[in-house]
Amino acid sequence: MSKLSIIIHPDPRLKKVASPITNITDRIKQLSADMLEAMYEASGVGLAAPQVGITKRLVVMDCSNEGEKKELILINPEIVWSSEENVSFEEGCLSIPDVREEISRPMSVQVQFIGIDNTRREEIFDGLWATCIQHEIDHLNGKLFIDYLGPMKRSSITRKMIKLKKQLNRKK
Ligand code: NI
User: Is 139 inside a domain boundary?
Assistant: First the structure.
């Protein structure tokens, strides 16, 4: 089992704006490795540090096809360009289990970030990778994908999650 547990919505820790990482310490390296482990274990394609209770601008993701494995660690990621064209994907979130909703976002984005080897990088993401990185950067800004939905739908999902959390607490 992974050392990290993933926070379920609603939780004030998922609403905070995360702070930039100034130093890539051994602790940050260990955290990235642990986050990747937790993400794969939960069969997710992306995970942001605030989801494990760390309010830092760190994201891990892997949107490759099954069996390929192409893990990516992004420190202080920032979108520097978005395409005008949007695309809709059915999104899910490890902090909102078993909920999937169609969300429309720019089809491609250009992202600047620092790699775990402390190099400055810039990459263009398309398709699922583009959706995923935008979803994860939202987490760093205290935003969830359900925030793009109407208030009725959003509060019904939140009620469902409150119920789920009660059930999970009972099992402990
Ligand atoms: Ni998420």
Answer: yes
